[in-house]
Task: inverse folding
């Protein structure tokens, strides 16, 4: 039985990464729902393309049991996150990641996705592929320079340019 995926899309989201995940799920019949890390379901890509998501991250809280996996669709997220870390949607983002991690569900991300897994404390001792700019920032996880890494329930890729290398292994777990 295929797994159902919750996709977190920050505002602005890196469309190159997000669309790769969505195409993978759609083309392989994997059910997914997109949650905006924003106050509304209307977000933009970092290149200005408007997107309508299915729901907002606040409405995913407490519904973690409805999903088997969580994707953090990254991109230019960290500068915006650090500017707005106190906003409720960013606090909801961290709470959702922690809840999925505490339940040992699949956690999938690229670029700085692994950094958020580390910040929430769910990736302690796990090897993660991270964007080179944030590799030295992780505290409890193990940063690698690999293009992608699978460590237990963590599936991470260094950038959106290396996601395609992770996808065959990810599909094995989601189908």
Result:
């Amino acid at each position: 039985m295929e797994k159902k995926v919750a996709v977190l899309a920050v505002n602005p989201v890196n469309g190159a990464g997000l669309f790769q995940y969505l195409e993978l799920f759609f083309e392989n019949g994997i059910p997914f729902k997109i949650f905006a890390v924003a106050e509304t379901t209307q977000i933009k890509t970092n290149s200005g393309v408007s997107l309508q998501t299915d729901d907002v991250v606040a409405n995913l809280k407490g519904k973690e049991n409805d999903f088997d996996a969580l994707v953090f669709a990254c991109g230019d997220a960290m500068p915006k996150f650090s500017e707005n870390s106190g906003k409720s949607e960013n606090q909801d983002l961290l709470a959702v990641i922690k809840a999925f991690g505490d339940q040992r569900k699949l956690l999938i991300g690229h670029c700085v996705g692994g950094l958020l897994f580390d910040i929430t404390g769910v990736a302690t001792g796990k090897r993660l592929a991270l964007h080179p700019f944030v590799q030295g920032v992780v505290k409890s996880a193990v940063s690698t320079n690999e293009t992608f890494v699978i460590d237990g329930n963590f599936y991470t890729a260094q950038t959106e340019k290396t996601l395609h290398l992770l996808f065959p292994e990810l599909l094995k777990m989601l189908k």
